[in-house]
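Sequence in, structure out. Go.
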Amino acid sequence: MKPYVPLFQRPWTLPSSGRAIELLDAKPEQIDLVDMATMLAAAPRFNGSTASEDGVTISIAQHCVMAADILFARTGRRDMGAAGLAHDGHEYIVGDESTPKQKATGLALARVAKAEGLRLVDAQGAEVSLPGLYDRGMAALKDGLDAVIYPKFGLPWPLPADIHAAVKQVDRDLLVAEAARCLPEPPWTGGFPNDPPIDLDVFCEDGVYAPWPAARAAQEFIRRAALYAPDCALVKGLVDDMIRGERFVLLDEPEDNRRQEFAPA
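Output:
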């Protein structure tokens, strides 16, 4: 039997709902839809480099909503939409670890090890790449959280091969389209493609792609969960909270009222 270690001595985070989440041993009951929606809506894509003139940035929540809508449009399958919505769900717990930052951290670890004369070897005596080890550690952390989050959206984990491949493809397509549309032109030759794989405007209700305010991004995230996974544990849990009067969340709204404020009670 493992010895008990108090929560404050283990890696954890505390969302606004008060449901503390253990990063290395997350439990299904610790995952909350409103926490996920509001925290992803406050987390910017591309480290905040997509800010509009009024300072609003594209959020991870908006990115996930776009992924969900595009996957549903491509396949007509609600489980694909749910998978697109959930694909960055772990980032409400561990944040958005950008690829450049992740690579730089691994290389920085290797530099520290070299400067201090440290060398990591495996059981056979072969040297272990610290950047590669860091990448595997981050992947294991995210996989552990995904193993709890995806089933809360009514999806199996690991994802079936076709859903996994479709999510990876739309994530890559959105990366290119969002960068080409929203980031400054990079200083290197070539820059971003002139013909990105997705026309972002097509998937926007008003026909113009632009960053959503955090309140709208959170509300749209919750609306998509109710649309693509209406019977999942996350949506049912939120509805139960609303029935008990513990929360009020607008799951749908009139067409002319898309920007109404989202706020839990």
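Check: The chain has nine helices and two strands. The CA atoms of residues 177 and 196 lie 5 Å apart.
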